[in-house]
Amino acid sequence: MTMLAFRTRASIYPEGTAPVADRPARRERLAIVSTRSKLCGIAAYTAAVQRQLGEAFDVTVFDLNQYLLRKTHKRVRRLADRHIKEICGALRHFDAVNIQLEHGTLGRDTADSDRRLGWLVAAAPRVSVTFHTMQQPPSFDTWGFAKSVARLKWRTAYDMHRDFVRQSRRSYGTMRHLRRAQRTKQVAAIVHNRRDLYDAKYLFGVRNVFDHPLAFLGKAEVDAVHATASRQSFPMLDALPEDAVLIGVFGFLNQYKGFGTAIQALHYLPENYHLLIFGGIHPNEIAEHRQIHPYISSLFSDAYIDTTLYDRISAPAQESAPALVLTAERGLGELLGTHPRDLSARIHFMGALGDAEFLSGMAICESVVFPYLEVGQSSSGPISQALELGCRIIASRTRTFLDFAEYHRNAIEFFDIGNHLELAERVLARPQFAAPRPFPEFNAETNKALYLLANSRLSRGAGAPSRIATANELTQP
Length: 477
Known about the structure:
477 residues; alpha/beta; Rossmann fold; six-stranded parallel β-sheet
C-alpha cells in the first residue's frame, strides 16, 4: 500500500494526544447502537463493522426499534424514549460506544431525534459517532421572511422560521452534543468523505475526526462471491441469449436513483445489451389501492412499455410538433401495434433480493451503473460493494461519487448526471481502466483499523508531533 493510502491527520486529535491505541490484556467491550432493519442500508454496514471488529472487541449491537422511534403518536413517543433510556442504562457497562447515525433513525421528529442522541452520547463512557449523512447548516432567507411578514403572510413566515430551526438543529444541534461531551470524555466522529471531515473539524469544532469510505467485504468474502456467482443463479435470465451483455443498476426504486437515465441509454445500445434492475419499491412507499407506483410508471414510459405509437401521438404535444400523415398501407398497424422503441424484452426487473443475491447480481454484470441524481448524500453502499467486487463501474458525476473516487483512484468511469447518450457511449467503449483491478487500498482492513483507533483509549503524550497515520501502520497487528 502507498504511504498516503489512508489519511488520519494528527491535527484531529486533542493537543498533546498521539494516535496510539491502548491494547489491554482483555478485549474491551464495544457497543454499537444502530438500526438492524433490512429497510435501511445502515443495517448492512453495521453487520460488516461487527464482523470486522469481532476479534478486536467484544461487540454487542443494540438494535434501534424503528417502529417505536419513527412513530409520532404521543403514547408511542414515550415508549420510544423509554427504549432509548434502557439502551443508555446498558451502555454504562461498556468501555466504548459507537453510534451509527442517520437522520430519522432516532425519530421522525427532529426534536425527538436530537434529544435521544444527547442521551446516548451522555451515557457512553467514550463515544464515536458514524455520520452517514452530514447535515449542512442552513441559511435563513431574511429578505423572504421580511416580505412575508410585511404582507401579513404569517403562515409562510412561520413555516420559514420553523424549517430553519429544524435544519439548524439537525446540523449545529447534532454536533453540539459532541462538542460538549469532548470536554470531559473521549469523543470521535467518523465520516465517509473528506468534505465531511473538514466540516466536522473546522465548521462544527469536533476535535477527533476520522474519514474512511464505506467498506463491507474482505478479500475472502469477495472470492467467495465470485466463486458462486453465475447467470444460472437467476432463473429470470434463463431465456437470455448467450451473447447477452448485462448492465446492472441496484437499489430501491426511487426517483433520485436515476434508473430512467439507464433505460434511455439502452435505446442507443445494440439489441444484445440488457438492463437488469436489482431492487424494488421501498415497503414504506407501498400505498393502499395503488395499482402501480408512479416511479415504475415513469420507467415504463422511458422504455415505451405498454404503449403504442398512437398513444404517444395522441398525447398533448407542442405547437411545433410535426403533423401526422398516414397511408392506407401503413397506418393502422403501426398506430395500434407495439411501439417500435419498446424495450420490454431487454429490461428485467430482478426484484428486491437478499444480500447474497444482490452481490451475485453485481458480479455477473459486465457494467454496473449508478445513474444517481444529486441529493446531498455522503456515501453509497452499493457502489462500495461493486468496487470491492472489482466490477466495472460507471457512475454519474454527483458529489457523493466524486468524493468516493478521491479514495479510489482509477476505478470509476463518470458521465454527467442525466446524460444518457454519454452513458451509452461509455458502456459501448472499452473500459477506461484495466481489469482486473487490485483490491482497493481503502478496504475492510483499513476500516477495521480506523474503528480501532477511534474507539480505543488514546494515550496522551506531551508535545506529540503532528503526523500522518498510514494504511500500513493502521493494518499492522
